[in-house]
Design brief:
The chain has 103 residues and is mainly β. The chain is 6% helix and 50% strand. A seven-stranded antiparallel beta sheet has the order 4-3-2-1-5-6-7. β1 and β2 form a beta hairpin. The two termini are 20 Å apart.
């Protein structure tokens, strides 16, 4: 399990978090579940990749300049392939920033 998923896994399902991708997207929502994903290899990637991910249910959209289409109520995958730059608690306290725990 990578560091991001180890960190997110400390929160119970139903925990509200804000996720920020710099200059792209800022959303709020709840941790739904952590699961194991699988990415089949492509021409550039020589080996298949098993990884952990978090299903995150969007409840608020604060800034929507994402390159993917998002809607309230939608589940999105948060993983090493879609890693936020910053994670904040509902109180506004930054707890994760660019790959580092902040508390």
């Amino acid at each position: 399990m990578d560091k991001l998923m180890e960190f997110i896994s400390i929160f119970e399902n139903g925990t509200y978090l804000n996720l920020i991708w710099y200059d792209k997207c800022c959303i709020g929502g709840i941790v739904d579940t952590i699961y194991e994903g699988y990415l089949e290899s492509s021409d550039e990637q020589k080996e298949d990749d098993e990884y952990y991910a978090c299903a995150f249910r969007i409840t608020d959209i604060f800034q929507n300049k994402c390159y993917w289409n998002i809607k309230i109520g939608q589940l999105i995958e948060v993983s090493k392939y879609r890693s936020p730059d910053e994670i904040l608690l509902e109180t506004g306290e930054t707890v994760w920033k660019r790959g580092k725990i902040c508390f």
